[in-house]
Design goal:
CATH architecture of the domain at 16-168 and 250-283: 3-Layer(aba) Sandwich
CATH topology of the domain at 16-168 and 250-283: Rossmann fold
Bound molecules: zinc ion
Strand content: 5-15%
Strand order of the largest sheet: 1-3-2-4-5
Radius of gyration: 19 Å
CATH superfamily of the domain at 16-168 and 250-283: Creatininase
Helix content: 25-40%
Order of helices and strands: EHEHEHEHEHHHHH
Distance between the termini: 43 Å
Mean pLDDT: 93
Shape: globular
Length: about 290
């Protein structure tokens, strides 16, 4: 690949963690300028070569990094890291050990209860940081956000779903010399990401994995599991092509997306929604019960 242009040098600095504060310290935060970053992604198999926490670790670390960036660039804001929640709905990967799937309704209640609790004390802004894009998971998140925003004066955004489903990555990514449209799960992108962030957590056998492709968005696949559609190793794409330079670029995209959404939220700008057709599809998922 061409050298990815990047200006990310991981920033150092203390990140405010909710669990380390007393109620007195929390009560001193300016309600108009405090933003909670809430990482939320499940344990889910990611092929024979990546850890089950791939989405969880990515969401948590990108949220932490976004806070570091904002602490420098927006000292007027109080950015708080909520303890990362290792939960999510996962249908496709359910038949592999290590995948822990939580009911869509449970996700919805978790999101709405957490945000409502914050709102009850006057806090106004929350960013749900997920890296897991299963529509049943997003359905839970969006329902929970809607419920909390209906009953309280809090504004909540989930930025990665709109980035992902508007296919921003394909529009922006550096040239890699092959078709990345078929990279879907534990693939070139996610293996690159982990190679960049945690190379010691990536099993070197990834270099020998054959490329496997499936259209996971075909109507015939919806509601099925990986094993139902003949995916026996738990990945879809070409992990062997992983490149940590690409991983650095991709990680920075996630950080930038979380950061921008937080700024837009406090400044009252309109934040991006999921594409219309994704919303329709998400609502129609009657089997996610
Ligand atoms: Zn993933």
């Amino acid at each position: 690949m061409k050298a990815a242009k990047n200006n990310n040098t991981k920033t150092n600095g203390k990140v405010m963690q909710l669990e380390e504060q007393s109620w007195k310290q929390i009560d001193a935060w300016d309600r108009q300028n405090t933003i909670f970053f809430i990482p939320l992604s499940p344990m889910e198999e990611h092929g024979p070569h990546l850890p089950v926490g791939t989405d969880f670790i990515t969401a948590r670390d990108a949220a932490r990094e976004a806070i570091r960036v904002l602490t420098k660039t927006r000292p007027d804001l109080t950015c708080v890291l909520f303890p990362a929640i290792p939960l999510g709905y996962s249908k496709l990967a359910t038949d592999f050990p290590g995948t822990i799937s939580t009911h869509t309704n449970a996700i919805s209640l978790i999101v709405s209860d957490i945000c409502s609790s914050l709102a009850r004390f006057g806090f106004k802004y929350a960013v749900i940081c997920t890296f897991h894009m299963d529509l049943g998971h997003l359905k839970g998140i969006y329902r929970g956000m809607k419920r909390a925003m209906k009953h309280h004066e809090i504004k909540i955004v989930e930025p990665w779903g709109p980035y992902f489903y508007h296919k921003e990555v394909e529009k922006r990514e550096p040239q890699v010399g092959f078709d990345t449209k078929k990279e879907v799960h534990a693939c070139f992108r996610e293996t690159s990401l982990m190679n960049y962030q945690y190379p010691y957590l990536v099993d070197p056998s990834y270099k020998n994995l054959q490329s496997i492709y499936r259209d996971l968005y075909s109507p015939r696949v919806l509601g099925k599991t990986f094993k139902d559609i003949g995916i026996t190793e738990g990945y879809v794409g070409s992990p062997a092509r992983a490149d940590s330079d690409y991983g650095r670029w991709y990680f920075q995209q996630i950080v930038d997306t979380y950061t921008q959404a937080a700024v837009d939220l406090v400044e009252g700008k309109k934040t991006r929604d999921l594409p219309q057709k994704t919303q329709v599809l998400m609502r129609s998922l009657f089997w996610y019960k």
